[in-house]
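From the pipeline queue, job 12 of 40. The input is one protein chain; the requested action is below.

Action: predict structure.
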Amino acid sequence: MPASVRPRAWSRMPWVLLAFALAAGPAQAQNLPWEVNIAEVETGRLRAVAERLSKQFLLYQLHLGDVRKSDLVETAARIDRLIESLERGNSSQSVPAAWTPTLRKQLREVERSWEPLRRLAVAGPNEFLRVMQEYVPKESRRADPLSLGYIDDLTQNFIAESEKLLGLYDDECVKTGLAICPTARLSGVTVMLIERATKEAVYVVAGIDPSEHLKRLAQTVEVYLQQRRAYDQNDLFAAVLNPERGASARAAGELLASLRLDWDAMEMQFRSLEAGEVKNFDLQSLLDKEEILVDKVQRFTAVLLRYASLAYGT
């Protein structure tokens, strides 16, 4: 072929580069620091919502409180949404899709541990026995016909896998340099402890192995109090609640004070159970206080996250 008509190698390069880019797929967008933190916070919520589901299952099976099957279905749907948000991302909530193979692998483990718990939670009355036969060992069904203990075991397994995922997100958050990373677990772990303590109180009121569940209740309350003392020494708390920051800091301080008053009222009820005052215990009052307290914890965590996002790099 004459040199004048021979194609030049460099003239083909743009097409080669384009083909390579298409084969490689879209480049991973850089996540903003607070988006990484939001993903960590969402992961922490998995544990809290799982404890809520376990408590609701207990109340539903024992016909206590005002829990309906639709409540269990909705709580299960919340966990579904949280997992999907972490897997695929949720732009409206600034949650990035899992961006490393390690995160995606652990998310699959979380899903596997979630499946039997989910199936038992959403199964209708006519389906429940069939699902139990599919998942619950025969010896467990004989000893625990309501599957209360089995649900607790599944819950703790799901929480353990969620903890592993949370550790991975925490590692990613620390890389961003955000000051909130050590504090980001506040909402999830605090709500989880509130839900767990309330669930243990329900067991005691129902008279199901009360000595064991009283011990677990006392342990959960102590962990909550240890965390509360630790956060009193937290630099981020001090910054957020600094009166020099004006009205927003005062509002945050009032919210935190109110939150702690609500916990103190709940703790008094827990202490009354420990003292043996079960007969006239007002369980509905405890459940109502829990709802209010959980809402305030989540609102205060939002304050922390906003502050950390605004203060980043300043």
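Job complete. DSSP finds twelve helices and no strands in the chain.
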